[in-house]
Amino acid sequence: MKLVFATNNLNKLKEVQSLVPSHIELLSLSDINCAEDIPETSPTIEGNAIQKATYIKERYGYDCFADDTGLEVVALNNEPGVYSARYAGAAKDSTANMDKLLRELSGDKNRKAQFKTVIALHINNKTETFTGICTGSITEKKRGTDGFGYDPIFQPEGYDKTFAELPLEEKNKISHRAKAVHQLIRYLKN
To answer: What is the pTM of this model?
Structure first.
């Protein structure tokens, strides 16, 4: 089975490739010669995932899946949410995004947050969605060098390390994306 994962984020691609069984050949956007920026104009995480998967299916004809992820911080009314990648501006700069988030939470005792990933699968002329959530909290400062995005400031519940301090194998046991991907894999097996 061939499936396109509609992402240009090589870190996401690496994470998901490590989870998908070997009988599924995962193609990247570069594998199908898709260099354009896929629109993400929906006001919801789920809507963006569906929009990206639909875009690839309609323009390239491949069965595919796409994800969208947001970091939802309780004290900030679930912001940055759907705007997580562009929280500090259009440049999608992870360091600037984390710095802004830490400034916004400065002095706030409520640091509860969750990562939410929605995967939209476009296959057999149907669209299915799968949602994964990982609860935790925002640390006072950045810790760790692995991972990407907000990983250095997100500490999953029950852990004393941030996502950026955990090895990929450990992160893939508990992460929001891993949870959504496992649901996707179960669906594909049936």
So the answer is: 0.90
